[in-house]
């Protein structure tokens, strides 16, 4: 018998990371690591984490600094649980690009990754459960951040915004969003802007929020090589969206709204492959593509990129 | 698929999602990571591919909408339909 596509997906979910995918938790329950509670002020939040051990809380505080506080009302809640190391497969990560395994349902999303299992549930509000064998240190904060990225992506979409794989550049007032796949030059362009006096919100992931007063870019603690991981909220009117190209002749050409929308959808991680939330993503990003000028920017290592951004017509 | 003719009937695959925006269309497929941008005529072909109307019906409809040379339009529609089929956006019912 040949299973249908749904059957294939169900059978393959988690196989790369979990020894017993069939035993994936069906609801948010288990043995907590401890009784510590911590809230993070990240775009779409606050996000409240309970069930942490003292070591886990300390590691999160070290990594996210000023974004942490004791607790929060009206927060998106996640409970953290122990999972035995024997639940997770040994993965040889040499030369390997880490991609979380995800399975989407109308009211839930399941995640599997390196030493992590997690689920997001809409009941009807969004909440989460995170199971891991990591109790401290960088391994734990890596698990935590990988989960938080997915949670933030879904929460932002729920609020009419989006998480965008991008570089966010600001002059302190306005912001520019630079798009492109890995290797397109987001970090290089960010560094060139930084050298000319701009600030970099993040060269990896940024939050776009849409409101009555237009599109705004908000800093996230998810950085690559550049950006401030633990700085407070920073919200800037979005001046333009730019799709990056490296080349020898610097310049810009207008992108059609459809070209901008295609670039934005491709750059919206986690939710852009979720069949249950794609319509919402398309609607949000279409609003963004229609409301903000978009350009294709070709830049070289000559360093004029910051001048080009500032001189873009409205 | 047998060669595409005016009598061929095709439909959009169920996992195709798209958005019309200022004439063009942005297309996503669940089963693939890429995001495609289609021009106006190709986007209209996607609109018309309902699994009931034939390629000939599409041509008649589009001939009423576009002030284009009939032979050129017919050639474009057949080419776009074949490309969209190859790209996995259209399928036979």
Can you walk me through this structure?
The complex is a heterodimer of chains A (314) and B (93). Chain A is α+β, with helices and mostly antiparallel strands. Chain A has 7 helices and 16 strands. Chain A has helices spanning 5-12, 54-64, 137-158, 186-195, 257-266, 278-291, 305-310, and strands spanning 36-40, 47-52, 68-69, 76-82, 101-105, 108-113, 116-122, 126-132, 161-170, 175-179, 199-202, 205-211, 214-218, 235-246, 251-254, 294-299. Chain A has an 8-stranded mixed sheet with strand order 3-1-2-4-8-7-6-5, with helices on one face. Chain A has a 5-stranded mixed beta barrel with strand order 9-10-14-13-12, surrounded by 4 helices. In chain A, helix 2 crosses helix 3 (137-158). The longest helix of chain A is centred in the middle third of the chain and has 22 residues, at 137-158. Chain A is globular and about 55 Å long. With 93 residues, chain B is of the alpha+beta class. Chain B has 3 helices and 6 strands. Chain B has helices spanning 40-48, 55-65, 70-86, and strands at residues 9-12, 16-21, 24-29, 35-38, 50-54, 90-91. In chain B, the strands form 2 sheets. Chain B has a 3-stranded antiparallel sheet with strand order 5-1-6. In chain B, strands 2-3-4 form a 3-stranded antiparallel sheet. In chain B, strand 2 (16-21) and strand 3 (24-29) form a beta hairpin. In chain B, helix 1 packs across helix 3 (70-86).
In brief:
The complex is a heterodimer of chains A (314) and B (93). With 314 residues, chain A is of the alpha+beta class.
Helix/strand class of chain A: alpha+beta
Based on the structure, what is the oligomeric state of the protein chains?
heterodimer
Query: Helices and strands of chain B: which structural class?
Result: alpha+beta
Order of helices and strands of chain B: EEEEHEHHE
Radius of gyration of chain B: 12 Å
Helix content of chain B: 25-40%
| Biggest pleated sheet of chain B | 3 strands, antiparallel
- Tell me the span between the first and last alpha carbons of chain B: 12 Å
- In total, how many beta strands of chain A? 16
Shape field of chain A = globular
| Tally of helical segments of chain B | 3
Low-pLDDT residue intervals, each spanning 5 or more residues of chain B: none
Strand order within the widest sheet of chain A? 3-1-2-4-8-7-6-5
Query: Which pair of chains forms the biggest interface, and how many residues does each contribute?
Result: A-B, 19 and 17 residues
First-last Cα distance of chain A: 59 Å
Mean pLDDT of chain A: 90
Q: How do the strands of the widest beta sheet of chain B line up side by side?
A: 5-1-6
The largest sheet of chain A, given as strand count, sense and whether it forms a barrel, is: 8 strands, mixed
